[in-house]
Batch of 2 targets.
Target 1
Amino acid sequence: NTLQLKIIRYPHKMVRVFREGQVLWVYLLQNLPEEDSSPNIKAALLVWYKAQARKVLSDKLEMHAKRMKVAFQMFRLKEQKTIWGSCSSKGNINLNWRVIMAPDGGMDYIIIHELAHLTHLNHSKEFWERVAEFMPEYKQWRKWFKEHGQDLTL
């Protein structure tokens, strides 16, 4: 699910990002020098993606927690190079904001995986059975993250 990036210069005071279908529009300041464009685009996209991640992942977390009949304490977004999520013994769920760039099923897999840790704080046979109960195709998503996870970057 690749988005097309379109950049437009316009005479306003703020850089703006919004999505329309499969197009991600970045409105840049008209008088911004060319050499300053790239860092500004990246910074604007980072803010936009993190805001999307906070909303979408939070909604999915709530939905899957209800389905799995578990309760987590706190949800935090993290920025990590190789870890997609974690669950503490206190019931806190951390999710890498980059998960928002994965396909929908990938986001669901990471969330179900972390929520399953609320029942089994390990990767035992019972843990994987719990994941499979709510996502029978979890192995394809594990494989997907191994093959494509490094591509989820700005």
Note: The longest strand covers residues 4-10.
Target 2
Amino acid sequence: ELNLPSIIWAHGVIDSSLIPHRDSQYAVPHDRFLINAASRFIVNSDWTKRYFTEVMNSESPILIPNWTQIDTAYVEKPNKYLSRRFVCLNSLEKNKGHNLLINAAAELKLMGKQFSIDLYGKGPLESEIQELINSKGIDNEIKIYPSIKDVNQIYDNAIGVINPSIIDSFGMTLIEGMARKTVPIATKSGGPQEIIQDGVNGFLIDREDSQA
């Protein structure tokens, strides 16, 4: 009645079954109503756009990719690409694929490779992820740290940033890392496939393929 515009900006896609105490019987119809009632509906990737167009029956979402600031005067440290340190900045949740990363790290150790992986984030699976790290005997190679605001210093001290997600609508840490000249490595989980050209500006691997 007030004729007020409403804008929905979808930064991701979450299966309603993953949300605790959310009744999936009503979640999808509720979301569909909000999306189609909005004056403008914005999404962050072609992958997300296809999801909402095909699954949620949304009409013509507007695509505006996520962005990050770039320091055009930034120069990487002299020994950056001699580093054996990799970082992963993902919440410690089921769909973020930490199991894949840990299994890959275990295989690297068996091959005699020297490396370290720093996991930054928090979430409900922290203790479970730590137990898996311990069980694989790679607790010296992989460490878990809390989230921090100044992510640039994390990328500046690493050769690569890894996103092992099962599903990801974009991949914010990938463009953050690339802005600091840090090599992105990600699974073919949706959004990352629109950011990375495999073998050109980073590396893409199949989901759940720890050997890759």
Note: The first helix runs from residue 24 to 37.
